[in-house]
Amino acid sequence: MEGVVHTGTDASAFKECFSLTWKNPYVLRLAFSAGIGGLLFGYDTGVISGALLYIRDDFKSVDRQTVLQESIVSMAVAGAIIGAAIGGWMNDRFGRRTAILIADFLFFIGAVVMASAPNPSLLIVGRVFVGLGVGMASMTSPLYISEASPAKIRGALVSTNGFLITGGQFLSYLINLAFTNAPGTWRWMLGVAGLPALLQFILMLLLPESPRWLFRKGREEEAKVILRKIYSADDVEKEIQDLKESVEAEIREEGSAKINMMKLLKTKTVRRGLIAGVGLQVFQQFVGINTVMYYSPTIVQLAGFASNKTALLLSLVTAGLNALGSIVSIYFIDRTGRKKLLLISLFGVAISLGLLAGVFHETTSHSPMVSRIQTSHFSNYTCPDYSSATNPGAWDCMKCLKASSPDCGFCASPTDKLLPGACLLSNDTVKDLCHDESRLWYTRGCPSKYGWLALVGLALYIIFFSPGMGTAPWIVNSEIYPLRFRGVCGGIAATANWISNLIVAQSFLSLTEAIGTSWTFLIFGVISVVGLLFVIVYVPETKGLPIEEIEKMLETRSLHFRFWEKSQKPLHSAIVELI
């Protein structure tokens, strides 16, 4: 299976990219059409975070069962793991264009099923379909762009796929906000995803197959016609010859030795490369990024913001910062270096998670008390557990929200949300009664004067994560493996990323329920510190090094510990031998 190419590039490459695409719009059309796959990937990641707020309101079983909420989120990730695996085979067998068309079809079907789902079970089925499409598109779109782009601007065009992913996440929050007052709220949010899938399907029908794939299948004349549209007359013959030689060498390599897991593990450079590459992908997920992307509005509500609309609006900030961070990374990745950027990123992430843990500890341990007077104001709707409590004077908002037979909610004081309020049954009737008296209604978090600090923590988390841990693991994985093993090793690392994503998405809400939000973020913080130590010990600095020197570094177990210094010496004197 050929792997996804995630290429590091710099600002000068983008200037040349704009220049060349202006002269040859056909190249931009190829890149944009395939890049919609990245937009779909990002949109689906972001849209479910807002839609989940309204799905819980419509389906009471989802609101009551944390595992159902996690399943609605994570089944798309499970589908993506299968989609990425099938997508690799389909890419090689049927071509990149065909794989993208099938991904669009699956995504469109999933969007329709989700938008019309009469129950949570069918909604989950739709999420699986969407996940299959996302998994296929996530690996095929950058591969198609890479193989159908001029070599001079390939890095810049592939990097636009990353922009479209974060842009899709930002767009999803805007769409979520647009439909907050529309009938059917979450159905529109999820259903709109079918439109870009349909657009890409139409655009890809009008575009050719990847010229590299055509060469591999012996369809050289078709490939040459496409290459003549992509390259100038001065460059095209050389590119055709280079591509032909590259494909022939690739086929010879495949024929000379079958790649299997034992061979990978026995090859010292590959084994050490895999430890670094797979480790980075696992830590990327286990420091909690997709808890922020999948559950951002829920986290905002846990911090004490009651309104769905307010939670979505504030979550828009994190999506915007994430998109901005992917742009910032382009400037720093080749100036600062991969390792230094990873360490700065993980240090900042650990500090941010520590801040979040502290904030949520304060919000849960200092929530407003429950007032018997305020509660008796809604005498017919008092929470049964509160009525039968032996010491109701000790009840606060958090204890009220933990009542489960039946579920209860907290109606804040009308004068100040931080003053004692009422503990009442949780249903739509009571919520409306509470709102009618200009009170705030809480079911997922309690009023807190520290809520704004949680937003600061989330913003800092994204600011530190996005430019470093958000992009550098993909770039390191595109550089660290020997060329002949790069496809299969990249696939292993990407699969590790998806599986880690699934574990985090499926466990976050259960963890917050079992041990509390503060302890959950503290666990992520500890993992960040472990990740920082892992990067220091196992991840080499690959900035500016040719493949041969990276292999030599891994072969001799040499790592450049003084990552903060610019290496001006030859490789053998610039690295420190591990003992």
Automatic annotation (TrEMBL):
Gene Ontology molecular function: myo-inositol:proton symporter activity
Matching InterPro entries: MFS_dom, MFS_sugar_transport-like, MFS_trans_sf, Myo-inositol_Transporter, Sugar/inositol_transpt, Sugar_transporter_CS
Membrane topology label: Multi-pass membrane protein
Annotated transmembrane regions: 30-55, 67-87, 99-118, 124-145, 157-179, 185-207, 273-296, 311-334, 341-360, 450-476, 488-509, 521-539
Membrane as UniProt keyword: yes
Main location as per UniProt: membrane
Cellular compartment(s): Membrane
Residue ranges of every copy of the Major facilitator superfamily (MFS) profile domain listed in the record: 30-543
Magnesium in keyword set: no
Gene Ontology, cellular component aspect: plasma membrane
CDD domains referenced in this protein's UniProt entry, alphabetically: MFS_HMIT_like
Keyword annotations from UniProtKB, A to Z: Membrane, Symport, Transmembrane, Transmembrane helix, Transport
Xref: PANTHER family: INOSITOL TRANSPORTER 2-RELATED, PROTON MYO-INOSITOL COTRANSPORTER
Protein's name in the database: Major facilitator superfamily (MFS) profile domain-containing protein
Species this chain originates from: Gossypium darwinii
